[in-house]
Amino acid sequence: MEAEWSPADLALLEELKRAEALLPDDAPRALLSVRLSVLTDDTTSPVRQELDLRMLARERGCRVVGVASDLNVSATKVPPWKRKELGDWLNNRAPEFDQILFWKLDRFVRRLTDLSTMIDWCLKYGKNLVSKNDSIDLTTTAGKIMVTIVGGIAEIEAANTSTRVASLWDYTKTQSEWLVGKPTYGYETAEDESGKVVLVIDQDARRALRWCRDAAMRVRPASARRMVKVLVRAGLCGPGLTAATLLRRLRNPALMGYRVEEDKNGGVRRSKIVLGSDAKPIRVAEPIFEKDEFESLQTALDRRSKNQPTRSPDGATKFLGVLICQDCDTNMTVQKTSNKGRSYAYLRCGKCRSGGQGAPNPEEVYSRLVNDVLKVLGDEPVMTREYRQGAEARKEQQQLEESVSYYMTGLEPGGRFTKTRFTKEKAEKTLDDLIKKLEAMDPESTKDRWVAVHNGKSFRAHWEEGGMEAMATDLLRVGVKCKIKRTKVKGVRAPSIRMKLMIPKDVRKRLILKEDDFAEAF
């Protein structure tokens, strides 16, 4: 979805920007939040939202410092702090604005909990929420009450919509007609003689699937990778097809013409047959494979499948994204195999032939990486980012400037402090003290800003408390890489391993920990 600006819209935009240029330097700064799920004739376009909000900013005497435009984003599913545009402003650019302006509350949030989180965030950082079409203003008690009431109504409306959608999906699962949803690979939608939408077999996809079954049933069956190459070369499938996707298609029981639903079991995506009220599968189309053909195909695929060990909940590879291959510059990952009851783990890369020389004993590589990182970064202090508001400092600066002006006027010829030598000397001394205080003020203290504060720990202590997981998270966040060079050693099966730590020049700045204000809300 893209916003389309007409000549009239662009002319109005330029007019509003010219008016904004006349505002004083200390005018309140406004961030415009524009959101839309789906653009239809009944919705307010992103362009209209932005122009309305710019006119609202002009009425309030605010300078627009940015537009957070999040299109094709559901307010029910994605809270403000997780949106691509608005989330960046909230998490990283809070010092740059004073108010968040939005067209209507349901364009901003649709869940009461999200609204409550945003109100708490605004009160903590001294920000205000303002709606074009709702009586919302956090600077007043009535505004806070109103925003809660309106937010509750928006959440009820969203819940009703969600219930209707869920009910529709539950109903369609029990029907033989195809009402909504994307057909399984191998089928496409069409209209029958009565005008109803039905599933029919996609002949090109059928050819591809039937060929794959024949290839899997041979005495020397073809691998999934080989099947992908043949199908792509023949033009029956797109170049983005992978072996994992092809296997998932071949294992889908929907190819027997039955209705299915997704069944996530142990992190593996599978589909299972939906049973009707008579406890029998619901047929929605003609089968591409008969039952015996499908079952024999599954048996053939099972014979070639590798019996991989169960996945670890924390992932098979520690320091994923940090350890990279020096030759092909791709991530090093742990690949496990079993042979005669024994399990073996190797670090391999993504692009080198056959994963390159396998590096056995990944734990030893992890240990060497930890030691190298501690030598270089272990003694660095842990700095945390804190938000400092400049409102109090600005108020103090304004008072000092007004006092200086007052005494300077009084010391002019004929002024109130020039009538006697005593009052003149006292006023001059007071003026000097005020000027010194004004000069001593740090200009940065009058701005809303982030500051780095030492929390009293070193990263060595921080990582000892959090373990490898904490170190891996920090290294990935900071952009630290460790290049692995594997070299074949004559007469030795395992290659020699050389490790080169790559640390960014601005690593100290990147290491600063940023408090996640929305962690509990997640």
Description of the structure:
- Strand 1 (29-36), helix 2 and strand 2 (63-71) form a beta-alpha-beta unit.
- Helix 1 runs parallel beside helix 2, helix 5 runs antiparallel to helix 6 (141-172) and helix 12 (391-410) runs antiparallel to helix 13.
- 41% of the residues lie in helices and 19% in strands.
- The protein has 15 helices and 17 strands.
- With 522 residues, it is of the alpha/beta class.
- It has 4 domains: 7-163, 3-Layer(aba) Sandwich (Rossmann fold), CATH 3.40.50; 187-304, Hect, E3 ligase catalytic domain fold, CATH 3.90.1750; 323-380 and 452-514, no CATH class; 390-444.
- The mean pLDDT is 85.
- Strands 2-1-3-4 form a 4-stranded parallel beta sheet, sandwiched between helices. It has a 3-stranded mixed beta sheet with strand order 9-15-16, covered by helices on one side. Strands 10-11-12 form a 3-stranded antiparallel beta sheet, with no helix packed on it.
Topology:
Blueprint: H1 7-21, E1 29-36, H2 46-60, E2 63-71, H3 84-92, E3 99-102, H4 105-108, H5 112-125, E4 128-131, H6 141-172, E5 187-191, E6 197-201, H7 203-216, H8 224-234, H9 243-250, E7 260-265, E8 268-273, H10 291-304, E9 323-325, E10 333-339, E11 342-348, E12 359-360, H11 362-377, E13 381-388, H12 391-410, H13 421-440, E14 449-458, H14 459-478, E15 481-487, E16 496-502, H15 507-510, E17 513-514
Parallel strand pairs: 1-2, 1-3, 3-4, 9-15, 13-17
Antiparallel strand pairs: 5-6, 7-8, 10-11, 11-12, 13-14, 15-16
Helix pairs in contact: 1-2, 5-6, 8-9, 12-13
Keywords: DNA recombination, DNA-binding
Domain Recombinase: 184-307
Pfam families: Resolvase, Zn_ribbon_recom
